[in-house]
Amino acid sequence: MTQRNRTRLVTIAVVLVAALVAVLVGAEVYVRNRATTCLAQSFESELGTGVDVDLSWKPVLLQLVDKQVPSVTLDSDDTAFGPAEEMQVHAVVRNVDLRESAEGAGTIGSSSAEVTWPTSGILATVQAQSVGGLVSDVTADPAAGTLTFVVGGDGLAEFTVRPTVTDGAVAVQTVDASVLGFGLPTSLVDGIVEILTSGLQQYPLGMKATAVSVTDAGVELTLEGGSYVLPENPEGAQQQQDQGSCGVLV
Asked: Residue 250 class from Cβ within 10 Å (0-12 exposed, 13-18 middle, 19+ buried)?
């Protein structure tokens, strides 16, 4: 074989390899984008709308073969646990197995989440309920670990609560409730405590609360979860998934 032929073969080989790499990279980018859209839609039922998804380092083309996703990072600024508004969630889901079974659409090995509920969201949540229409402000006291609710104008009445974690769930305890030294109606205080408790006790993906703290901005909640079976999509949603981007990994 002449030197000219060798050079020509090497050039052809280099071009073919470069083309193959370009195809693989393009396919990876395309499938990864579709997969993130799919997973975002899948987790919106648990975390609310506008979920941002970041897949692990493992190429999505390999995930198409074995249906195994090492980890998925989820971020949402519009999460609602029960009646709660404006919750911000950063969650990590690990060891996701997307092989369907009789139990569900797949499984999760473990999960964790950091939840922030700002005082603005707490106030909006309380005011959205009939019992909380009289609440005009919420302030946080990190040193005491409490939230103080102002009832009516000019701060004439207020009550203070403290969130704690007991047996994997948040409990909200009333610390003080008074109107110029006189007690507030029990129905008002109990109603608002119930709203807060409902917002802090409904967790996604089978998680449980492990810690709660009051910061200058509001309430921060730490959640952790173990093995969890992903529920099957409703029939209508499944048809949409088969026809659209959610058919990529399943």
From this structure: middle
| Lookup: tokens for 83 | 């009646």
Looking at per-residue pLDDT, the higher value among 231 and 74 belongs to 74
Residues 184/159, Cβ–Cβ less than 8 Å:
yes
70: enclosing H helix or E strand: strand 68-79
Go through 200-223 and write b for each residue having 16 or more CB atoms within 10 A of its CB, e for each that does not.
bbebbbebebeebebeeebbbbbb
β partners of residue 225: 111
Helix (H) or strand (E) holding 186: helix 186-199
Q: Give me the domain span that covers residue 66.
A: 1-250
Domain count, the chain: 1
Tell me: pLDDT of 130 over 90: no
C-alpha to C-alpha distances, 16 to 11, 20, 27, 74, 145, nearest whole angstrom: 9, 6, 16, 38, 64
Q: How far is CA 50 from CA 38, 56, 64, 220, 223, in A?
A: 13, 20, 25, 20, 20
- Cβ-contact 142, 215 below 8 angstroms: yes
User: Which of 248, 12, 181, 206 lies closest to 108 in space, CA to CA?
Assistant: 206
Percent of the chain with pLDDT over 70: 67
B/e letters for 31-67, b = 16+ CB within 10 Å, e = fewer, are: bbebbbebbbbbbbebbbeebebebeeeebeebeeee
CA-CA distance, 194 to 188, in Å (whole number)? Answer: 10
